[in-house]
Amino acid sequence: MNPNDHPIALWPASASASAVETDWLILAFTVLTLLLVVPIFIGVTIFAIRYRDGNKVNRQHSDRRDRMLELGWMLIPFTLTLFFFAWGARMFMDHKNPPANATRIEAIGKQWMWKFQHPGGEAEINDLHVPTGEPILINMISQDVIHSLYIPAMRIQVETLPGRYTQLWFQADRPGTFRIYCSEFCGTDHSAMDGLLTVMTPADYSDWLAHSGSSASMAEAGKSLFSAYGCTGCHRGTDTDRAPTLAGLYGRPVRLAGGGTVAADDSFLRDKIQNPGHNPIAGYPQVMPSFNGIIPEDELTRLVAYIRQPPTTRKLSALPTPLIEAPPSIVAPSSVLAQRSPLAEPSLP
Amino acid sequence: MSPLDITLRDPETPRSTLGRPPDYLHEAHTLRSWFFTTDHKRIALLYLATITAFFVVGAIAAGLVRLSLIVPNGQIFTSDTYNKLFTVHGVVMVWFFLIPSIPATFGNFLIPLMIGAKDLAFPRLNLLSWYVFIGGGLFTVADLVIGGVDTGWTFYAPLSTTFSNTYVVPALIGVIIVGFSSILTGLNFVVTIHTMRAPGMTWFRMPIFVWTHYAVSLIFLLGTPVITITLILLVMERSFGIGVFDPRLGGDPVLFEHLFWFYSHPAVYIMVLPGMGVISEIVPAFAQKRLFGYRFVAYASLALASITFFVWGHHMFVNGESNLAALVFSLLSFAVAVPSAVKVYNWTATMYKGSIRLQTPMLYAMGYIGLFVLGGLTGLFLATLSINEHTHGTYFVVAHFHYIMVGGTMLAFLGGLHFWWPKFTGKMYPEAWGRVSAIFIFIGFNVTFFPQFLLGYLGMPRRYHDYPPEFQLLNIVSSAGATILAAGYIFPMIYLIWSLWFGRQAPSNPWQAKGLEWTTTSPPPTHNFETPPTVDFAPYDYPLRTPADV
């Protein structure tokens, strides 16, 4: 079933439980809206007819004001709408907390195309294939301007920013073909930056992966790049003599030279490759060169995919030296802390 | 016939035109007397002519956008042309029509009259504001029309600073200049309302129109400098490579979104509040009844002007802002509904047991109430986080803000224009044409924009030139509605100008309305009041009905 086969759209296709819930939310909210506005429309119409100048009707009124009435029509509709605030907020928080077992797809937006890469390294342009029944996490970044990945069938979109990763996740519950768009205006061919999402059964998806051909997984490709760019010169396994070890680093808090900690998430790792002097970490002089403008965005994504791997899959025998002491509870996202960094003077070599 | 004794409504019998003082329009006819005037009434008419011209430019661009969208594959214009067209429409309508529309014309004309003053506090500054406005406006419009800019009115970085190949900097400079006109006008209004009220004109004897303009002036003063600085930063980054917003230069594009919406959300209330002021004058006049809950409506104006500064983050729910920020901005956006609801319910209650005449201004006011309610409540949909995740950046948003800005501000503007036209010009407009146009606009507007709610929920992104074919039917309906709407705009432009020469002479108070502006002749004398008025009556001093009056 291809979206192009529908001559006229009447109701948006939905392909996830969350999308169905969004529909119920908006339908219920519409009912409340009608309950609130229809009396106003009827009132305005009836008053305009009944109290038309010249009609002989009782117009007796006084200047007395009914404060309870006024407070009532201020506060009762507001209180009723808060139910929908809470409902929408709960769904939003679900959308912000992807399950830990989600299949991770890397997306890069650029003028004017989407590039998606599956964990095994299979790449697609503008089209995306995913299996049903599995949470899919899309980790994305823009190579130029702000884009936004919008999947109407999942009732979800998140902006794709340059210089920082953003994420969205969904879980498709039925196979089909649906549209994806860029929904943030991005220049000349903004409206050509769309494509198709194909949701497949897990068996079909495995089959599709097997036939789409990929020489190396994201992490394997990242490992090659890790050597090619000379990172191994300093970041050697669990050796911490010249540089902090990267084994087991992902997701853990890192102590900064200027005090405080920052979580080693995707944006932090990418930022450290691009701007090592930004947010110097505690215990090491800042000697790493900047790779800003040297490593293309998709290679950065692969490098981060390599560093992100747990140490066992990276075949590092020893456990990582803890360069991390702070309890995870006080960790703020790197994007927040990164803006507060000027306290720490970068120590140049 | 009306059972109400006409003298009950209008104790002052209209004065003969013989022997009355020369009015501001006929005092002098030279170009110099217009372009160097410091009379707030003449400056208001200069603004009226200017914003009408800008409106025509913006409307033509909108018409071409709707023309293009009749076909799904973008065959009528190239992508670049389409992008430039919607940028012309957005920039011109927002900055050169909607923001100055009611304050710079009606506010300029009426605030001194309504509070019993001879002029604004700074008449020469007022004239300067107009020169700044038309200078900046013409500069940007020339740039947009001759060169073209393809960023949309939102100028998001780094598209606007690094990647666009169009003439962004001149457009920004014009908008920056026009901002100073807003600041100066706001300053003038605030000082005037504080210091120049007639004896006895206490704060709670001021019409709601003056209250809403006071609230708007505060937004002009507090909000406009932020957008001025933000746009200057864009110019710095684009022209000199000073990194503020582009991550390649060490900047942060989300910072631009924050700064932009910190002004541009309050700007919505710059557009909406004066319209509320207009409706609060029209409804009591055409119901011949006191405005229900006057004090609540006054306070609600100030409440809106305050809350509006704390909801900008609802434009950014899907850009990765923190969850806490999203929750707080969502909740605060719901709170905006409270003062908005006060106004709508109070206008409706004002009609109850009134003595209603359905003349053109009242038709516009009733249309306004309906459309503003729909626009406001769909705003709550968008403020609901998970609905926003689906509808953000789609035609749902486009429909929502057109219900607020066209259904709200534009209808209030036209209603006010008809309401005060006799006062501005001394001539009556043709009533039948007025009613027909109002109905055309109401129907045309709904046929144009209601389908866009559906398109948005179906998932059609905005600013799409080349859209999937399943959306074509609703787009054709929308474009068809736009032609009805266009007719509704063209009629008043013709018959209002016609009425300047051929219209019936207007009495001082054709609507038997209350308010100091109606105690002057039509058009008013140059210095507004022959003798300074003393105010010893409440606003909206319409008679209470006793059983004898039924």
Could you say how many structural domains of chain B there are in total?
1
Low-confidence stretches of chain B: 1-16
What distance lies between the first and last C-alpha atoms of chain A, to the nearest angstrom?
60 Å
Q: How many helix segments of chain B?
A: 17
Task: State the fourth-level CATH superfamily of the largest domain in chain A.
Answer: Cupredoxins -  blue copper proteins
Oligomer: heterodimer
CATH topology of chain B: Cytochrome C Oxidase, Chain A
pLDDT averaged residue by residue of chain B: 92
What does this protein look like?
The complex is a heterodimer of chains A (349) and B (550). By secondary structure, chain A is α+β, with helices and mostly antiparallel strands. Chain A has two domains: 197 residues, Immunoglobulin-like (Sandwich), CATH 2.60.40.420; 126 residues, Cytochrome c-like domain (Cytochrome Bc1 Complex, Chain D, domain 2), CATH 1.10.760. Helix content of chain A is 32%, strand content 18%. Chain A has seven helices and twelve strands. In chain A, strands 3-2-1-5-8 form a five-stranded mixed sheet, with helices on one face. Chain A has a five-stranded mixed sheet with strand order 4-10-9-6-7. In chain A, a hairpin with a 5-residue loop joins strand 2 and strand 3. In chain A, helix 1 packs antiparallel against helix 2. The C terminus of chain A is likely disordered. Chain B is mostly helical and 550 residues long. Chain B has one domain: Cytochrome c oxidase-like, subunit I domain (Cytochrome C Oxidase, Chain A). Chain B is globular, with a radius of gyration of 23 Å. At the A-B interface, helix 1, helix 2, strand 7 and strand 9 of A face helix 4, helix 6, helix 9, helix 11 and helix 12 of B.
